[in-house]
Amino acid sequence: MDNVITVDHPLVQHKLTLLRDKTTPTMGFSKLMREIATLLCYEVTRDLSLGPVHIETPLMPMQARKLSGKKLVFAPILRAGMGLLQGMLDLVPSARVAHIGLYRDPESLVAVEYYFKAPADLSDRLVIAVDPMLATGNTAVAAIDRLKEHGASELRFVCLLASPHGLNQMQTHHPDVRIWTAAIDDVLNEHGYILPGLGDAGDRLYGTR
Ligand code: URA
To answer: pLDDT tens digits, residue range 132-148?
Structure first.
């Protein structure tokens, strides 16, 4: 798929393996997630535009470059997306944040919305939706639907793991949204979990199981 970028940087792959390992405890899990988020943020922002600025170094004036394109919004999908947010803000502290509260109904696996709060000017911004697991794709598609309804027109999606089914769903519903992922796994189980995966990202992040 042309619009899927697998970030195979050795540091990302190494940290992802530690995340997948069931013996990694909650504290290590959240730290690793934040670190990978920073590395994924570096990749998803690789083509941001730069413009010239005049500055003075301690030694002389110079023409330097600064980010000049659209301002960024990070849009974590609650709750597991929060595990990726801080690592991305570490790199782009000026980004705004849109919170999207969606959970998967455990029976139907359909995304149910319970919260949405975004900056007013989404149409002027590059919106990067984040959720560690692109599994059935239902949640991601619903989140992008909501962001578009609120005016977002330039969107990207960052996750840790994607399933082929989730990628197909995104391709079908939102072909304009490029996806950055650390890996594409094999399949979903009957509960909509990615295999081999890393388990329930929210539970592992917050120690709730
Ligand atoms: N959400 C998770 O946390 N893990 C999966 O494998 C799929 C969805």
So the answer is: 999 999 999 999 999 99
Contacts of residue 83, defined as CB under 8 A and 6 or more positions apart, other chains included, come to 30, 33, 34, 37, 132, 201, 202, 205
Residue with tokens 């890996």, as numbered in its chain: 183
pTM for the model: 0.95
Under CATH, what is the fold of the domain 4-45+71-198?
Rossmann fold (3.40.50)
For a pocket test of ligand 1, which of 167, 198, 204, 206 has the largest count of ligand atoms closer than 8 A to its C-beta? 198
* DSSP designation for 137: S
What is the per-residue pLDDT across 51-69, written as a single tens digit (0 to 9) for each? 999 999 999 999 999 999 8
- Output the DSSP codes for 79-103: TTTHHHHHHHHHH-TT-EE-EEEEE
Q: Give domain limits for the chain.
A: 4-45+71-198
CA 135 – CA 149 distance, rounded (Å): 23
Which residue has a Cα nearest atom 7 of ligand 1?
Answer: 193
Q: Which atom of ligand 1 is nearest to the CA of 203?
A: 3
Q: What is the DSSP letter of 59?
A: S
- The rounded distance, in Å, linking the Cα atoms of 135 and 121 is 29
